[in-house]
Amino acid sequence: QQQVKQSPQSLIVQKGGIPIINCAYENTAFDYFPWYQQFPGKGPALLIAIRPDVSEKKEGRFTISFNKSAKQFSLHIMDSQPGDSATYFCSERLGTYKYIFGTGTRLKVLA
Amino acid sequence: NAGVMQNPRHLVRRRGQEARLRCSPMKGHSHVYWYRQLPEEGLKFMVYLQKENIIDESGMPKERFSAEFPKEGPSILRIQQVVRGDSAAYFCASSPPDGLNVLTFGAGSRLTVL
Predict the structure, then answer these.
(1) What span, in angstroms and rounded, lies between the C-alpha atoms of A97 and A23?
(2) What does the pLDDT look like over B16-50, one tens digit per residue?
(3) Cβ of B102 and A49 within 8 Å?
(4) Which of A16, A23, A38, A66 is the most buried (most CB within 10 A)?
């Protein structure tokens, strides 16, 4: 079963820390790199996304950085809060419409 | 805008029974995806459908599983003769006709097979 390579699998940080989650993609034709956030008992929801013509995008405390040569993109959460505790997924498109997801990173932010 | 609606939210079946999961996409969305999520695991692609057509079912088990998205009504994921290994959360997502990359997910249907 195809999945995007995502690391780490789990992460525990203190409140105010800066967790970083990495994703390695395969499809160099892909033009959109999203991160999804999922709380327990809920469906994933789009958190932030980047297009490959920029190297970084910030939305509030969330930042995506994109490294085209390494085929990687990362999510940084600035000043992390306990409410950020969730599972984070990156996604990649294979072919025209098939979207696959990473294995997920379970983040816990300690109060 | 009600978003992607899935029902039932929770479903309990005994081994050998059938499970039917329904998904109504967001208004204006004509693309539907089904994903399976096992506990502590990621989202596994199962099938992608447009109205009345299965476009990609490469992630769907060959036996017992089927999906449809009729011209009228919700998309249905059907699991026949369920086994304990089918216990999982099944998520539906939809996207608009222009194929933009953002998927909008429903809250999921959690299937428990006794």
Answers:
(1) 20
(2) 999 999 999 998 888 999 999 987 788 999 999 99
(3) yes
(4) A23
